[in-house]
Amino acid sequence: MNPEPTIPAHERVYRTLRARIMYGEIAPASALTLRGIGAEFGVSMTPAREAIRRLVAESALTLSASGRVSTPELSNDRIEELASIRAMLEPELGSRALPRAHPALIERLENINAVIAEKIVKADATGYVRSNIEFHRTLYLRAQSPAMLALLEIVWLQSGPTMRALYARLPRRQTIEKHRTILAALRAGDEPSLRIAIRSDVTSGLRMLLT
User: Which is nearest to 131 in space by CA: 179, 90, 84?
Assistant: First the structure.
């Protein structure tokens, strides 16, 4: 058997940093340096620079005129824009997933929602963000719309650090209850209710951050 190909260093750094940003493990406006990334991952400046370049291109990181690289600190206008994009994409993905929402999928979503409840009890903010994204991704994968899901993941990536900040303001059980409404619509095969439930879930949280 051929050995599994080694992941290039720049790809490994990119994937790890991308996940950290998406799941809110890095706070908004946190600075990153090539030297720091290189030291953490044991790579030279070149792979670190390539990973940063890709993340800047996805707007997961910002690059100032002075060369400072940091996670974005979203303005009110940007939060509103991302919430609007989610309100367009996610109900459509849910609608496309509905015909394939078999009982095993619904059970899987219920289990993820139970994990979210555990993360809330443990005050695990990054675990909460990670599990919340997993809930939505698990459903939307059934839509079989990879291009649309890829666009949505860019939105999740850009809002990841801000979603971590949201955790401190969000009524703790709000997400769980909204997910239960989504699950009820899936069980009933009720497409209009599913669209409404998803739109409410994905926009109400982000808009709580508007100041």
Answer: 179
Q: What is the pLDDT of residues 148-182, one digit of tens each?
A: 999 999 999 988 888 777 766 665 577 889 999 99
Is residue 1 scored above 90 in pLDDT? no
pTM reported for the whole predicted model: 0.88
3-state secondary structure 54-106: HHHHCCCCEECCCCCEECCCCCHHHHHHHHHHHHHHHHHHHHHHHHHCCHHHH
Q: Are 13 and 43 in contact (CB under 8 A)?
A: yes
Task: Rounding to the nearest 10 degrees, give the CA dihedral for residues 142, 144, 145, 146.
Answer: 100
Query: What six digits make up the tokens of 98?
Result: 């509905």
DSSP state letter for 6: P
Beta bridge partners of 70: 31, 62
Length of the chain: 211
Cβ within 8 Å of residue 34, ≥6 positions away: 45, 48, 49, 52
How much is the pLDDT for 207? 65
What's residue 102's pLDDT?
95
For residue 5, name the pLDDT band (cuts at 50, 70, 90).
low
